[in-house]
Design goal:
With about 375 residues, the protein is an alpha/beta fold. The chain is built from 17 helices and eleven strands. It has a six-stranded mixed beta sheet with strand order 4-3-5-6-11-10, sandwiched between helices. A five-stranded parallel beta sheet has the order 2-1-7-8-9.
Length: about 375
């Protein structure tokens, strides 16, 4: 606990904020990619510590939030089948599809269960050979290795009643998609430390060079974030654009090579639709041909066609960094964690949920 507390030291954080103020000479706009970083920034008031020249905007750093409506609809159709035992992480249960969410499906009689690991779903398939157990595989490169291992174990055990509805996505193509937008405001990135723990830093080097933006890999504690911001600002002020690793206690340049091998064996790179951003080439992971028999969408004949979001929900603009949650007319009124219009208000990593928890305007009588 002392090690974590060190990176929350208020005096260290204050000194870093003062260093940033001394270095900056003009306005800069930075984007943190990870939803966990967004919550930490708002919880600890990091943005309020920064000089006025620094603007932080929040990117599509929540895998639950970017899961498209069409895939949620496919999950609901599969979960409603009487022979299916449908497994999901807790955040996914309340993400709205076109007609309801998985928690509503459970209330209506579907066998929907929250699990903490894909391996829990494999165990359920072993204990219930008469049921079709489906795991909703959601997440960035951080969680994909565990899903891959679950598939390998299911294959080794000869489980014919286990399958995946896959919604794993890759961060670097999404960053490129944002930088390619005509109205992109991002001048530097704080890259997600947990993704780089698995994948390393090599994939970011071509992005930094092509778009001439600094990318600093950082962690989640206040000092981590402020150190990352300082490094990013120093690069911008100096006209540099390289990848820096501010999180060496968890990230090495090559990443977790065994985890990468599992991913390469089980998955292939595919195009994927992102909620609020549309289809992004090479941004998803689908099952490789050798493991295609574990594809729940194929097994149950489910399509995952593009489905528009509710028009009142502005989460697409939030995910693109074009709008703060509090700028949405529905924020805190028609849209709340209890009655969400979009995934960014549901997920524990969603930007709207973070603002609702830490920055909701006080109601005066």
């Amino acid at each position: 606990m002392r090690y974590v507390a060190e990176y929350r030291d208020p005096e260290w954080a204050r000194r870093l904020a003062e260093q940033i103020a001394r270095v900056v000479t003009r306005p800069w706009t930075l984007m943190e990619v990870c939803g966990g970083q967004t919550h930490s920034i708002l919880r600890h008031g990091i943005d309020a510590m920064l000089p006025a020249e620094i603007t932080l905007i929040h990117g599509p750093g929540c895998p639950v939030c970017v899961t498209p409506v069409g895939l949620i609809d496919a999950a609901l159709q599969i979960a409603a089948r009487p022979e299916v035992l449908f497994c999901s992480f807790g955040d996914m249960l309340r993400v709205p599809g076109t007609h309801g969410d998985l928690l509503s499906a459970k209330a209506a009689g579907a066998d929907v269960r929250m699990v903490y690991s894909p391996l829990d779903a494999v165990s359920l398939a072993m204990r219930h050979p008469d049921r079709q157990v489906v795991f909703f595989g959601v997440g960035f490169e951080t969680t994909a290795p565990a899903t891959a291992l679950a598939v390998v174990q299911a294959a080794a055990r000869g489980l014919s009643n286990f399958s995946l509805l896959v919604s794993h996505v890759r961060v670097p193509p999404a960053m490129e998609a944002l930088l390619s937008m005509a109205d992109c405001r991002v001048q530097g990135f704080l890259a997600a430390g947990h993704v780089c723990t698995v994948m390393g830093t090599a994939e970011y080097e071509s992005i930094a060079a092509k778009y001439r933006v600094p990318i600093v890999v950082t962690g989640f504690e206040p000092v981590d974030l402020l150190q990352g911001i300082l490094r990013c600002v120093r690069q911008l002020e100096g006209g540099r654009h390289v990848v820096e690793n501010e999180y060496p206690r968890a990230v090495c340049d090559s990443g977790n090579e065994p985890a990468q091998r599992w991913m390469r064996e089980v998955f292939r790179v595919v195009s994927r639709e992102w909620r609020g951003m549309g289809e992004i080439p090479d941004s998803g992971l689908g099952l490789a041909q050798a493991y295609a028999r574990f594809d729940a969408a194929q097994r149950f004949g489910m399509g995952t066609e593009w489905t528009p979001m509710a028009t009142e929900c502005q989460s697409g603009m939030v995910l693109q960094g074009q709008m703060r949650p509090t700028q949405c007319p529905a924020f805190g009124t028609r849209c709340s964690p209890e009655h969400p219009l979009g995934a960014t208000m549901v997920s524990s990593e969603g930007a709207c949920a973070a603002y609702h928890r830490y920055r909701r305007p006080k109601v005066t009588s």
